[in-house]
Design a protein that fits this description.
By secondary structure, the protein is α+β, with helices and mostly antiparallel strands. It folds into 3 domains: 190 residues, Reverse transcriptase/Diguanylate cyclase domain (Alpha-Beta Plaits); 54 residues, 5' to 3' exonuclease, C-terminal subdomain (DNA polymerase, domain 1); 156 residues, DNA polymerase, Y-family, little finger domain (Dna Ligase, domain 1, 2-Layer Sandwich). Helix content is 38%, strand content 20%. The protein has a 5-stranded mixed β-sheet. A hairpin with a 4-residue loop joins strand 10 and strand 11. It is globular.
């Protein structure tokens, strides 16, 4: 299995058999770092860390040269620099990342309307209906790779297979800058030696649970029974892993991306013990989450918070609301209630607010009166000010003059773009 640093890479040769395939998984190679090199060619071939250079920022991405030293996304920048002292830190430019992403996604849609973006830098394509115009799935993948490099100036890796799951595994093995085609008849042969951690949904804990039972590869799963897998992982996950290990994945490429949750986090430059400040920050993050809910025409039924202490112990709490909402005040109140339920005696390093169980706005119907009418008017004014003057135009009075002592802009996730 190819690793994040590009070792163990597998690619298909010219004219590879693509019998029975039709699904492509396209993944840009070290996307953030590649865009940085695109804008500054002098960085080519050097170990790059995308992140803020000061404080306790985390790595957003890293070039393959840096990954070979063990640098990984979400790692503290300070730790990454200890692993790779020669690394160059480049501040992320999310507007530029979005610009390049849109350019690449437009190329995908030139080939087929059946494009399912997974994130800013990867997507599934169903090309079974594009054969007459563009050729076989392998030929389409070859043309796409060449066009992305020629027109966008960056490289991508593509997996071609009969199902989404196998296509994604194939693109991972092919990275960087590679193409791997897995014909339908070779699916079992391709899957058998893969580690169980390569299966969608199998995280470190699940992989450890399976390893304790002597199950380390897909072949090991097949050698056992579905019942054994269910006993180890639970009913739903056990059945899913069993199907994927046998190459069964009927999921279609979906052109409609449904948000599952929306959240924001903040890492503090200094650990915080002031609970009044923390409550203020929870409300500020809640306002940001609510603004994104309104922008996407969503409401949330569940609010969750995350608190990370100075020893990296991390606690999460969630609360289901009586009524779905997109009002910042309601989300902030729920977040503060959840924080109050946590025994926060130790200094706090990071906090987060997340809206979950999203539904279309207005789906719950309207009552005879709206208890939040005044707060909705405030939110409407905030949205207008943000649209006209930018996201920093207005903030809560309780945050003025206080958070600068502690807060550091966190390396943003894709949700923040």
């Amino acid at each position: 299995m190819g690793r994040g640093d590009g070792s163990g890479r597998m690619v298909s040769g010219p004219g590879a058999d693509d019998t029975g395939t039709g699904i492509l998984h396209v993944d840009m190679d070290a996307f953030y770092a590649s865009v940085a090199v695109l804008d500054d060619p002098s960085l080519a071939g050097k170990p790059l860390i995308i992140g803020a250079p000061e404080g306790r920022s985390v790595v957003s991405s890293a070039s393959y040269e840096a990954r070979r030293y063990g640098v990984r996304a979400a790692m503290p920048v300070a730790q990454a620099l200890r692993l790779c002292p020669s690394a160059i830190i480049v501040s992320p430019d999310f507007h530029r990342f979005v610009e390049v992403s849109r350019q690449v996604m437009a190329m995908f849609r030139d080939v087929t309307p059946l494009v399912e973006p997974l994130s800013i830098d990867e997507a599934f394509l169903d090309v079974r209906g594009a054969r007459r115009l563009w050729g076989s799935p392998r030929e389409i993948a070859e043309k796409l790779r060449a066009r992305v490099e020629r027109e966008a100036g960056i490289t991508c890796s593509i997996g071609v297979a009969a199902t989404k799951h196998v296509a994604k595994m194939a693109s991972t093995v092919a990275k960087p800058d590679g193409l791997l085609v897995v014909p339908d008849w070779a699916t079992d042969q391709f899957l058998a030696p893969r580690p169980v951690s390569a299966i969608w949904g199998v995280g470190p804990k699940a992989a450890e649970t399976l390893a304790s039972r002597g199950i380390r590869t897909v072949a090991d799963i097949r050698a056992g029974t579905e019942h054994q897998l269910v006993r180890a992982l639970g009913q739903a996950m056990g059945e899913q892993v069993w199907r994927l290990a046998h190459g069964i994945d009927p999921r279609p490429v979906s052109t409609e991306r449904v948000e599952k949750s929306i959240g924001h986090e903040e890492t503090f430059e200094q650990d915080v013990t002031d609970h009044a400040l923390l409550r203020s920050e929870f409300r500020r993050l809640a306002d940001r989450v609510a603004a994104r809910l309104r922008a996407g025409s969503f409401e949330t039924r569940t609010v969750a918070v995350k608190v990370r202490f100075d020893d990296f112990t991390t606690l999460s709490r969630s609360q289901t609301l009586a009524e779905p909402t997109d009002v910042g005040r309601r989300i902030g109140e729920a977040a503060c209630e959840l924080f109050a339920s946590i025994d926060a005696r130790a200094p706090v390093r990071l906090i987060g607010v997340r809206a979950e169980r999203l539904q279309p706005a207005g789906g719950g119907g309207m009552g005879l009166w709206d208890d939040d009418a005044d707060w909705r008017a405030v939110d409407t004014a905030l949205d207008g000010a943000t649209a006209r003057f930018g996201s920093g135009a207005l903030t809560r009075a309780s945050a003025l003059g206080r958070r600068d002592r502690y807060a550091e802009p966190k390396a943003r996730s894709l949700d923040d773009v």
